Amino acid sequence: MLTRNIIIGLVLMAVSAAFFAGTFGFETTGGYVSPRVFPQVVSGCMFLLSAILVGRSLVERIRTGPVTTGEGAPFSWPAFATRWGRIAAAAAVAFVYTQVLESLGYVPATALFLAALVMLFRETRWVVVLAVAVLGTGVYYGVFRLIFKVPLPRFDLF
Amino acid sequence: METSVLQGFLFVLQPWHFLFLFIGVAGGIVVGALPGLTGSVGIILLLPFLFYVDPATAMVMLCGMFCGAIYGGSISAILISTPGTPSAAATLLDGYPMARRGQAGRAIGIATLASTGGGIISTFCLIFIAPELAHFALRFGPVEYFALMVFGLTIIASVSGKSLVKGLMSGVFGLMIALVGLDPMTGVPRYSFDIPNLMIGFHLLPVLIGLFAISQIFVQIEEQAKGIVLSKQQLTGILPPFRELIRLIKVIVPSSFLGTAIGVIPGTGGAIASFMAYNEARRFSKNPESFGTGNPAGVAAPEAANNGTTGGAMVPLLTLGIPGDVVTAVMLGALMLIGVRPGPLLFKESPDIISAVFAGLLMANVLILILGTVSVRLFPMVLRVPMAILFPLIFGLCFIGSFALANSVWNMVVALAFGVIGYVMRKNEFPAAPVILGVILGPIAEDVLGRALISAYGDWTTLVRSPIALFFYAIAIASVTYSLLRRPGGKSE
C-alpha cells in the first residue's frame, strides 16, 4: 500500500501541477472574479495533499523497511494476470461495447455484451448465458425503447 | 405543518405514486439484503428511471429506496452473518446467534419492528426540525453558503474513509472534475481542449454510475469466488409476543432518538449510530453479558438507530443541501439530476416536494413493516440470486442508463472511465463519497464565492466577516481536528 500511495501521490502531484499551469491559458475578463482563481486554489490543494501523502508514505517506508510479502511484495506477472486479468477483460469488453453499439445496433451488441460478462463471471452453462443475454436485452429494450421512448441505436443493413 | 403532511399523504396514496414508493421500498430491501450492493448503488440504479417521472414522485421513490436499503441490510446480517450494508454490521452481533439457535424469523421480526419504529420516530423529528432550520437558513447569503460548502466537503472527507488525507484528496479530486467545462461566472472554457463533449463538463449521472456501480461490479468480478452459504432457516414466529414487544419498546424508542440525533450530524451515518445504540443498550441492560449471544435487544437497538438516521440525515440534506452520510451524498446527486436543488428555498418554492418526502418516509416505514412480515420467506431466495446473473444485468442497466441521458455513447465511455477510477480508488482506500460531494458542491461553491467577491468589490476578507460563516469554518476545523485525534498521530495507512 505504501508503494502504491507514493505512486498515486506522485501522479496526482503531476496532474495538479498540470492543472495549475493550465489556468494561465484561460482568458481573463478583468473583473473581480477571474476564471483562474478557483482552479488554482483547487489544484494547489491537491498538490499539497498529494505531497503530504507521498512524504508520509516515504517516512513510513523508511521506518518499516522494504516489504517482501503481501501488498508491497515485488511485482510478479503471473500474480498480476491472475488478479487483474478478468477485470481488465471486463473493462475491455465494456469499451468494445461502447464502440460497436452504434454500428451493430442495441439488440445484438447488448446481447453479446451481456453474454461475455456472464462468462467472465465464470458461468459456463450456455443456457444461463443465453437466457441472461436474451432476457436482459429484451427487458431493457422494452423498458427504455417501448415505454420511455429512448431512441436506441438500430442495426441497419442498408 | 399538519396540512402539509396531509397533502403529502394524499399525493403518496395515489395509486401511481404509491406504486413507485412500493418499488422503491421493495427494491431497497433487495439491494440492501444483497451483500455487495448498498443503498447508494440502489439509488444510482434508480436514476435512469427517475428522469421519466415528476420530481415529487422521484423523491418518494428515492425515500423508499433509502429506508428499504437500510432495513434490508439486516436480513443478510441475520441469515448469513454478512451485513448487506455497513449500517447493519452491529445487527449481526446478536442477530446471527439468534438465527443459529433457530430463531431467524424472530430476529427478522424484531429487526422489522425496530426499523419501522426508528424510521417513523426519525421522520417525525424531521417534520418538526427541518422547517425551522430551513427558515433560519434563509438568512444565508453567498458568504455563509461558501462557508457551508467548505464545511460540507471537509466534514464528509474527514470521516468517510480510513485516512483524512485520502478523504480530502477525494473531495478535491471531485472539485477538479467539476472544473472541466465552462466557468459558471464568466463562461470561459476550462480544460476542455476544444472537445465539444468536454465543453459542457462531465454529467453527474455517468460519474455517479461509474464511481459507485461499475466500480462495484469490478470488485465483484475480483471477489466472485466467494459464494453465499445459506443454511436452512426457521422463518416462523416473526412477530414477538406482546410482553417481549413492551420490553423491546424501551430499547427501540431511545435508540431511535439516538439514531436521529447522530443522523442529523453531517458525516456520521447509520454504522456509527447502530454501534452506539448497541453499546448503550448493553450498558443499560440488566444482562449485559447476554449481548453477543442472541439477545433480542441487541437486534432491536442497532436496527432502530440505523433506520433512525434516515430522517435525521434528511435534515441537513433538505435544509442546507449538505448530506449526512454516503447514501445521502448519492441522494444529493440524484436530487440535482432530477432538478431538485436541496436547501432552504426548497421549503419555500416547492412545498409539494417537501410534503411528499415527509409522507413518503412515513409510508415507506409502514411498507417495511408490511413487507418485512409478509414476505419474510422470500428473503432467503433473494440471497440465492447468482452473482453471475445479477452483476452483468446491473452493468447493462448502468450503460443503458448512461446512454439514455443524452442518447450519447460519450456518457457510457465516461461511466466506464469513472468505473475504472472508482475501482482504483476502492483498492487504494480512497473514499468515493467525497468525490461526489466535490462534483456537486464545486460549481455551487465557485458560484457563491464569485457572488460574494463581486458584492464585496473583490475583498477576500468578506469571507471571514460573517459570524455564521465563522461558525461553519470553526466546525469544519473541529471535524478535521477530531479526525486527526481519532487516528493516533494522524496516521492513516
What does this 3D model show about the protein?
The complex is a heterodimer of chains A (about 160) and B (about 500). Chain A has helices spanning about 1-20, 35-65, 75-105, 105-120, 125-145. Chain A has about 160 residues and is an all-alpha fold. Chain A folds into 2 domains: about 1-70; about 80-145, no CATH class. In chain A, α3 packs antiparallel against α4 (about 105-120) and α4 (about 105-120) packs antiparallel against α5. Chain A is flat and about 55 Å long. Chain A starts with a helix and ends in an 11-residue tail after the last helix. The relative contact order of chain A is 0.08. The mean pLDDT of chain A is about 85. Chain B has a two-stranded antiparallel ribbon with strand order 1-2. In chain B, α3 (about 40-50) packs across α18 and α12 (about 270-285) packs across α13 (about 295-320). By secondary structure, chain B is mainly α. Chain B has helices at about 1-10, 15-35, 40-50, 55-80, 90-100, 105-135, 140-160, 165-180, 195-200, 205-220, 240-265, 270-285, 295-320, 325-335, 345-350, 350-375, 380-385, 385-405, 410-425, 435-455, 465-485; strands at about 180, 190. Chain B has one domain. Classes of the chains: A mainly alpha (about 160), B mainly alpha (about 500).
**Helix amount of chain A, in percent?**
over 70%
Helix share of residues of chain B?
A: over 70%
Radius of gyration of chain A: 24 Å
Number of helices of chain B: 21
What is the strand arrangement across the widest sheet of chain B?
1-2
SSE order of chain B, one letter for each helix or strand:
HHHHHHHHEEHHHHHHHHHHHHH
Q: How many β-strand stretches of chain A?
A: 0
Mean pLDDT of chain A: 86
General form of chain A? flat
Largest sheet of chain A, in brief, is:
none
Mean pLDDT of chain B: 85
Uncertain segments of chain B: 488-493
For this structure, the quaternary state is: heterodimer
Strand content of chain A: under 5%
Structurally, the number of domains of chain B stands at 1
The largest pleated sheet of chain B is described as: 2 strands, antiparallel
- Give the termini separation of chain A: 54 Å
**Largest inter-chain interface?**
A-B, 64 and 60 residues
In total, the number of strands of chain B is 2
Whole-number total of structural domains of chain A: 2
